[in-house]
Design goal:
4-stranded antiparallel sheet; 2 helices; 23% strand; elongated
Length: 133
């Protein structure tokens, strides 16, 4: 069997209904949903490795992860297929082949965390998921 290809994904997601990034015994996670859809597409079990973890309810604009697969599907097909299968609160922004030695966590060069505080007497119903009031 040929060596697997390694694919890097950049994700955006609204974490409101998830129990964070990492697999949990008692709650739905981003990693679980992503691995499930990749299994459907590649027809093989896939383990996804993230550059970091987010807590329950936390959102991401550029979460990087990677996985290996023996599938012949290229990055563009994987991105399009995943975006067709994933729920509308998770989106693959980019998919690309990376060298075998790449690791999303250990090759990360920086991480940016942004906290938004709505500092006024009334909450904003449209920003309630994205700000702390």
């Amino acid at each position: 069997m040929a060596d697997p290809q390694k694919i890097k994904l950049t994700l955006a997601y609204d974490g409101t209904r998830y129990h964070g990034w990492q697999l949990q015994k008692n709650g739905l996670t981003i990693q679980e949903v992503l691995e499930d859809k990749l299994r459907v597409m590649t027809r093989e079990p896939v383990r996804v490795f993230g550059s970091g973890r987010t807590d329950a309810g936390v959102h991401a604009l550029g979460q990087v992860c990677h996985f290996e697969s023996h599938s012949r599907l290229g990055p563009e097909a994987l991105q399009n297929g995943l975006n067709g299968l994933l729920p509308d609160d998770i989106h693959v922004v980019r998919a690309e082949r990376v060298p075998a030695g790449f690791h999303a966590r250990y090759d990360a060069r920086s991480k940016v965390y942004e906290y938004r505080i709505l500092n006024r007497p009334e909450p904003d119903v449209f920003l309630r998921r994205y700000t702390w009031h």
